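Table S2 (text version). Query chain:
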Amino acid sequence: MATAAAISTDPRAEWLAEARESIEALAAWSAKYGTTFTADELRLMTGEPDHPNWFGSAFNTARIARIIEPVGFTTSRARSRHGGVIRTWRAAA
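Corresponding structure-token output:
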């Protein structure tokens, strides 16, 4: 018989599901107020994933689903990114 400790979850799937909900909320805000957003805002909403590439997966999945579209680039405000370039997004038209 399996115990609760023996049941494992998939942290990647859980984080990506939370990220998808957050991206949908950011896209709704973007559509309503005409703003853009970045992974920095997603990071504030979901926290750091176990692997930094999960951000790209989340945004790419939302782009393919036509929830968001890329509109430009800016520099990240996240300390871990050291001012690296990141994409800006808005709700898909």
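Notes on Table S2: The longest strand covers residues 68-75. The beta strands are 68-75, 85-91.
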